[in-house]
Amino acid sequence: MLDIKKIRQEPDFYKEKLATRDVKPEEIDEVIALDKKRRELLQQTETMKAQRNEASKKIGEAKRNGESADAAIKETRELGDKIKELDAELEVNDAELHDKMAHLPNVPHDGVPVSLTEDGAVELRKVGKVRDFDFEPKHHWDIGENLGILDFDRAGKVSGARFVYYLGLGAQLERAVYNFMLDEHMKEGYTEVLPPYIVNADSMYGTGQFPKFKEGVYQVNGEDMTLIPTAEVPLTNYYRGEVIPTEELPVYVTALTPSFRSEAGAAGRDTRGLIRMHQFNKVEMVKYTKPENSWDELEKMTANAENILKKLNLSYHVITLTTGDMSFTASETHDLELWMPAQNKYREVSSCSNCLDFQARRMHTQYRDENGKLQYVHTLNGSGLAVGRTVAAILENYQNADGSVTIPEVLVPYMHGVTKITKGNAVPFRNKVNK
Fold first, then answer.
1. Does residue 389 carry a catalytic annotation?
2. 52 is known as an active-site residue
């Protein structure tokens, strides 16, 4: 959430910056008007409370002097009724102000490319050599289905579209990828966490998914509970409502969790394969930092995600997203996109974002500065990485002409020495039947 005091002081700045995120100037005007009315109502209430206190004193004096206190009693009651009316009006005004503030996105950092669409993203660097195939590369879903390690049809029978069964060495490859990611992040100073997979509405509000994006998640019917769309939610809310000891900052945490997304609005997009699923594994990185360090920490986090791709020897590029394409809570986002040879294009596998104090204000997560004054921390989050998409990239980039898939060298120890997935070793129970 943004700072209402700053909006009050610099309305034109916020109108200009948030216009790049499709916020209309009148939305800022409405916030300012509600804030002004709130302060006026508070002033009226305080004035009337002072008047009521004076009237109460008159009642006491009249009774001590044996005089009639009827007029003062009447005045006290009338003031009390007016105060109740003002309090009720203030409650309605505050709820409307809070709702409008909760729907305003974060202010984009200077230098973020301005566009209301994804067009205009800036490429920062391109890493790795795109493989030159001497055969027509297949899509990862065809590779997986031919090897028998991905089963979309039976997952559709059991759950519906956008679900998958991983089988045999396919399941082991997924596990190898996320274990490798976690090990690498722990080397970089992250503490591994196993968080809850279901969170309450306050947690979803804290990280900015609620109230604006409820249609994108799965909620538990009849309960104030939601399946997490990303581990960012439980990780970032860990310190909600707390003051983090200054000596502990920065805090680095990482977690492997499933992510559950309804993919509302994704009809017809990526209907095949592992790119856009209702349930997928993701390794998340989250940081809590002091404000003066957060931009350096964003670059470090991006490098942490890149480290995984470099060691997997996968070609990728890093882009800075436009104002209209980055997440609601982000001030700047670097996306890592993997090269997918069968699609002949890059696909996103990680978004690393600096949210500044936007989430901390919603969560009331603070620390004490060198003067002992409470300040909001800055929070950052990034995928390190989306596991299914990484597996998809491995299948496509490491495929062989005979349909087999070579295991990236760094993953071989996690695969118990298996160096290649073939039809002969992919799914043991099927191999046994075929013998």
1. yes
2. no
336: left (phi over 0), alpha (psi -120 to 50) or beta: beta
What is the predicted pLDDT for the residue at 271? 78
Strand-pairing partners, residue 336, are 318, 350
In 3D, which of 326, 307, 328, 329 has the Cα closest to residue 316?
307
Estimate to the nearest angstrom the gap between the alpha carbon of 136 and the chain centroid.
37
Q: Kindly name the residue from 327, 389, 396, 404 that is annotated as catalytic.
A: 389
pLDDT of residue 432: 63
The C-alpha atoms of residue 411 and residue 176 are separated, in whole angstroms, by: 6
Task: Give per-10-residue mean pLDDT for the chain (435 aa).
Answer: 97 98 98 98 95 90 88 91 96 97 98 97 97 97 98 97 97 98 98 98 97 93 95 98 98 98 80 94 98 98 98 98 98 98 97 98 98 98 98 98 98 98 92 56
Residue 342 tokens, joined: 């069968």
Q: Choose, from 203, 350, 351, 353, the residue flagged as catalytic.
A: 351
Only one residue has tokens 């991905």, namely: 150
268: exposed, middle or buried (Cβ count in 10 Å: 0-12, 13-18, 19+): exposed
Cα separation of 2 and 238, whole Å? 21
Question: So what's the pLDDT on residue 179?
Answer: 98
For the question of residue 125 being annotated catalytic, the response is no
Give the number of other CB atoms < 10 A from CB of residue 402. 9
How far separated are the first and last CA of the chain, in Å rounded?
62
In 3D space, the residue among 75, 80, 81 whose CA is nearest the CA of residue 58 turns out to be 75
> Looking at 8, 276, 347, 361, which residue is catalytic?
276
Q: In whole angstroms, give the CA distance from residue 396 to residue 341.
A: 6
CA dihedral 374, 376, 377, 381 (to 10 degrees): 160
Residues belonging to the chain:
435
Q: What is the pLDDT of residue 132?
A: 96
Of the listed 21, 162, 261, 362, which one is catalytic? 261
User: Active site residue: 27, 78, 188, 348, which one?
Assistant: 348
The residue among 261, 205, 252 whose CA lies nearest residue 233 is 205
Rounded CA separation 408/413 (Å): 10
> Can you tell me whether residue 151 is helix, strand or coil?
strand
Q: What is the pLDDT of residue 433?
A: 52
Q: Does residue 348 have an active-site annotation?
A: yes
Determine contact, residues 387/169, Cβ cutoff 8 Å: no
Q: Where are the alpha helices (DSSP H) in 207-321?
A: 232-236, 294-311
